[in-house]
Amino acid sequence: MSLALLIVLSVIGVVLETVAPVRRAGSVFLRGLEVVSVAVFTVEYLLRLWSCVADPRYASPVAGRLRYARSPLAIVDLLAIVPSLVPGGVLDLRFVRLLRLARLLRGLKLLRYSEALRLLARVVVSRREELAATATVGATLLFLSTCAMYFAENEAQPEAFSSIPASLWWGVVTLTTVGYGDVYPVTFAGRVLGAVVAVLGVGLFALPAGILAGAFAEELQKRRDGTRARCPHCGAEL
């Protein structure tokens, strides 16, 4: 519980660093919080790496630890440490700043301590093929609708729909039903197409919601079944 609280506090600290007044007023506190959190996460990572041989899957002193270090949770633990060790004032490079921003990834460490988040991860993994198929359908629909809108609106709005890649912005905000209104069709064909794409977008995003809801129901049912006492011989519920 204390580690989970430290993870939340460290993520909040990273977010507050982007607010100039807070960064100036609380620089000492934020820096101290960062040092403490990195130190604790480093010790935790090393202890897990040292003690992982107690698990039969990582029994080998060398190969087992290397196998554990390649596991998803161990990689997340390492990513929570490394970005904070990169000096920010020595090299003013974009990829260095991006790597330091990756400190926000330490929020993924909550997966280790939250049963609800682990349940969500299992649900997503169990339905990865269906979700991938839905994503493929969405990407195909986005591409086709963008191409059609480009040909429908290019002559009327050459600035807004100058090319198919430039028209992708309209496709994204329309298919997701956000509709910022900064780019919109003005021709009759474009408006008809935009209405159809907006309606399809509602149905498209309902698909993964239904898939995940069904997977959650199945996972919860498995957990309930697992808690019921059963006969060791016939498997019947007692």
Q: How are the elements arranged and paired?
A:
Layout: H1 2-16, H2 20-25, H3 27-51, H4 63-69, H5 72-79, H6 94-101, H7 110-113, H8 115-126, H9 128-153, H10 164-175, H11 188-227
Keywords:
single chain; Four Helix Bundle (Hemerythrin (Met), subunit A); 0% strand; Helix Hairpins; 11 helices; mainly alpha; 68% helix; 238 residues
Describe this structure in words.
With 238 residues, the protein is an all-alpha fold. The chain has 2 domains: 2-113, Four Helix Bundle (Hemerythrin (Met), subunit A); 128-227, Helix Hairpins (Orthogonal Bundle), CATH 1.10.287.70. 68% of the residues lie in helices and 0% in strands. It contains 11 helices and no strands. It has helices spanning 2-16, 20-25, 27-51, 63-69, 72-79, 94-101, 110-113, 115-126, 128-153, 164-175, 188-227. Helix 8 (115-126) packs across helix 11 (188-227), helix 9 (128-153) packs across helix 10 and helix 9 runs antiparallel to helix 11 (188-227). The longest helix is centred in the last third of the chain and has 40 residues, at 188-227. The two termini are 35 Å apart. Mean pLDDT is 81; it is low at 89-94.
